[in-house]
């Protein structure tokens, strides 16, 4: 669970149930500073706003409770139709995180307290899409689980989708705070995915996230609560002996999951890649990072919008794909492998 150093309540956020939930949870905790904003100038209330590295560090220890104003949802192709803007930002400090590049000036986590407005807007999109099903993604710009025990936003969204025949919800996490989601009505309309990696990768690059043991325990609980379940194995790093470690990971996962799951799990496997822009931000925020980002060792793949990526070379990727395809289909014969890239 994310226990911030400071919580900044934007004007109006305490008028909503979610804002109240957060306030009540922390009101007696003297170690957590509470700042009530009269204007919505968040940045000025986080120390070191003129030094990216220090600001990043303080930002990651800050929680903002706000009110979502514009209610036009961003699209979220190809995995969903729309982003569901319950949260943004994340307390995790994964060295390679895409949020460093896209939300670099807002390193803090934020909860939007006016969830009824957000769900009403989701309903409008669902109605517009009838008779088709409309899918919403809850983690496009955030990892929502570490704030869930005190905000209750996911719970409310899951219950909303449970009674909605034409709406579906999905989110993904590297955390394990699932307790409040286990005994609620989801009706199979929410797909919970976990991003998994080897112990070595988590320890080296995924600072301030849940350990693999905690994540696997959370997978087990979500599987037993009969949610549709998916796994993203990413980013895969092709270090010496990587196959041994990833096989061990798949076997540990198998041990945790119940036999004959009602919803067979899905897998998405993504090898490590980076853009020049991401590399520059990472080098500034984590100058001592040990990420393998030597351009000479990679193949440059041109992207659709001029954002080319450095990926592993062709032979390495072919070998990796063969490995995962074989191991996943042997260890989880009932599963669906969506893609390995
Ligand atoms: Fe980024 Fe996800 Fe890590 Fe959070 S958990 S820092 S969103 S990669």
UniProtKB/TrEMBL annotation:
Lyase listed as a keyword: yes
InterPro entries associated with the record: rSAM, rSAM_sf, SPL, SPL_Clostridia, SPL_firmicutes
Keywords: Lyase
EC top class, as a word: lyase
Transmembrane parts of this sequence: none
CDD domains, per the entry: Radical_SAM
The keyword Lyase belongs to this UniProt entry's keyword annotation: yes
Enzyme Commission number: 4.1.99.14
GO molecular function: lyase activity
UniProt cross-references to PROSITE patterns, sorted A to Z: RADICAL_SAM
Protein known as: Spore photoproduct lyase
Organism (species): Clostridium hominis
């Amino acid at each position: 669970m994310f226990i911030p150093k400071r919580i900044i309540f934007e004007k109006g956020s305490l008028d909503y149930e979610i804002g109240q939930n957060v306030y009540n949870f922390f009101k007696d905790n003297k170690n957590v500073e509470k700042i009530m904003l009269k204007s919505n100038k968040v940045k000025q209330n986080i120390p070191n706003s003129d030094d990216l590295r220090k600001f990043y560090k303080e930002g990651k220890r800050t929680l903002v409770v706000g009110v979502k104003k514009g209610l036009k949802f961003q699209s979220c192709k190809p995995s969903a139709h729309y982003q569901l803007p319950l949260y943004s930002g994340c307390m995790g400090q994964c060295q390679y995180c895409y949020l460093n590049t896209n939300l670099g000036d807002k390193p803090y986590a934020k909860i939007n307290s006016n969830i009824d407005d957000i769900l009403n807007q989701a309903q409008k999109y669902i109605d517009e899409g009838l008779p088709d099903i409309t899918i919403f993604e809850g983690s496009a710009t955030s990892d929502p689980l570490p704030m869930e025990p005190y905000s209750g936003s996911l719970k409310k969204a899951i219950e909303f989708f449970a009674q909605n025949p034409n709406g579906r919800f999905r989110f993904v996490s590297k955390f394990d705070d699932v307790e409040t989601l286990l005994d609620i009505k989801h009706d199979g309309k929410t797909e919970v995915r976990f991003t998994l990696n080897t112990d070595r990768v988590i320890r080296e690059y995924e600072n301030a996230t849940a350990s693999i043991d905690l994540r696997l325990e959370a997978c087990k609980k979500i599987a037993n609560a009969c949610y549709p379940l998916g796994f993203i194995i990413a980013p895969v790093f092709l270090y010496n002996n990587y196959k041994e470690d990833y096989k061990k990971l798949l076997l540990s996962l198998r041990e945790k999951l119940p036999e004959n799951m009602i919803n067979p799990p899905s897998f998405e496997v993504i090898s490590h890649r980076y853009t020049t822009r991401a590399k520059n931000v990472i080098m500034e925020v984590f100058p001592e990072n040990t990420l393998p980002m030597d351009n000479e060792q990679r193949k440059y793949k041109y992207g659709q919008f001029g954002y080319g990526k450095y990926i592993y070379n062709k032979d390495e990727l072919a070998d990796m794909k063969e490995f995962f395809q074989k191991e996943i289909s042997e260890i989880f014969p009932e599963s669906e492998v969506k893609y390995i890239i």
